[in-house]
Amino acid sequence: MKNSLARLLIALLAGLMLAATAAAQGSEGESAPGAVTEPAAPASTAPDTDLPGTDAPDTAAPTDPVVIQVGSTVERASELEWRFEVATRSLVAQQGMPYGPEVAMQLRPLLPTYVEQRAQELALVVEARARGLTADEESIDGELETLRASVESDEQYHELLRSAGFPGEEQVRQMLVEADIVNQLVQELRAEAEAGATDAVLRTRFLADRAFFQEDEAFCARHILVAEEELAQELLERLDAGEEFADLAAEYGTDGTRTRGGDLGCFGRGAMVADFEQAVLDAEVGTPSGPVATQFGYHVVLVYDHTPARVPSFDEVREEVRNRYVGLATEAAIDGIIAGSGARSYPERMAP
Q1: What are the angstrom distances between the C-alpha of 41 and each of 77, 120, 146?
Q2: Strand order of the sheet with strand 263-267?
Q3: Chain centroid, CA 107 distance in Å
Q4: Which domains does the chain have, with CATH numbers?
Q5: How far apart are CA 19 and CA 134, in angstroms?
Q6: Sign of the C-alpha dihedral computed for residues 167, 61, 74 and 45 taken in this order
């Protein structure tokens, strides 16, 4: 019971920051391997006089150096250590594996990637605070209360937090606060993008992205695969005599499509082996053809639909254009915030 709750906690908190930014970024980019998107506790917002905005060593705190700086907001090595542990425990939990010292050592090389990503997240947190965004404390209290209620005692609760990598409940709260205000920031950026999605802007976006909206040529076909050319020829003759293609495919077909009347579904160019594709291209829609020899055997082919490539009109895809524009504009705004934040990270200051 305790292990399952620990995995639940890790999964919940691991997804918070990712969920906050994914709405804007969509699925067009892929994270680098090991780039765990873990929300983390707010860093100190007091000016850090030990790190005057240069690459000079943080000599004032040699045992706990500044590793990330965004303006006057800094995060030190000690803070990033437990955050990285939460991140790696989350990664391991997602794979259903036990976490231990050996696994932690194997994942240690991911630390520089995590630090770089955390610097980007922190830039968003700083921007959210600069805009005056505040978390819904009542909602966060409710989430924590639900978590406490999932175990029977305070001892079990604190053990649950430790098993997920958190020093205590305050760090969990801080993560929830960050996730909340970053989500609000993303929603603000989306609202700003939507306000700019005028008809003229969307039409321009559509013209620029015509290739994206193009519908590729598609063929929908059935086949009957047999081992002998003579049988394939006989089946063609029976089809010409009026027998049903699906019935003959179910009786004579030798591949998995026999259970669905030989239906291959719809596909584009390049999806099938060359000889079969050429037969499909040459076929008349609705008329059985063949036999077609491939490395698999002999095919009787029936193309039952053919849709030429086309670019739909703007009116047909207006909402899709709007969604794409808003998503890209929001993502660009996020990238701009990160790029303009001046965020610096020094992963080399972490212990190896």
Answers
A1: 13, 14, 20
A2: 263-267, 218-226, 297-307, 289-294
A3: 21
A4: 2-199+330-349 (no CATH), 215-307 (3.10.50.40)
A5: 18
A6: positive
Which of the pair, 91 or 202, is modelled with greater confidence? 202
What is the distance between the alpha carbons of residues 15 and 36, in angstroms, rounded to a whole number?
9
- Cα angle 171, 173, 178 (rounded to 5 degrees) comes to 95
Overall average pLDDT of the 46-51 stretch: 41
**Single-letter residue type at 337:** I
Q: Residue 179: name the closest of 124, 116, 112 by CA.
A: 124
In the beta sheet, which residues pair with residue 289? 301
Q: Is-contact 228 293, C-beta < 8 A?
A: no
How long is the chain? Answer: 352
Handedness of CA 102, 350, 73, 124 (dihedral sign): negative
Pair 329, 193: CB distance under 8 Å: yes
| Pairwise CA distance, residues 131 & 129, whole Å | 5
> Considering only 7-21, 123-137, 231-245, 263-277, which range has the smallest mean pLDDT?
7-21
**pLDDT per position as a tens digit, 162-204:** 988 999 999 999 999 999 999 999 999 999 999 999 999 999 9
Residues 6+ apart with CB under 8 A from 221: 264, 267, 280, 283, 301, 302, 303, 304
Instruction: Check: CB of residue 37 under 8 Å from CB of residue 22.
Output: no
Q: Phi/psi of residue 298, each to 5°? A: -115, 135
How big is the chain by its Cα radius of gyration, in Å? 29
Pairwise CA distance, residues 87 & 34, whole Å: 9
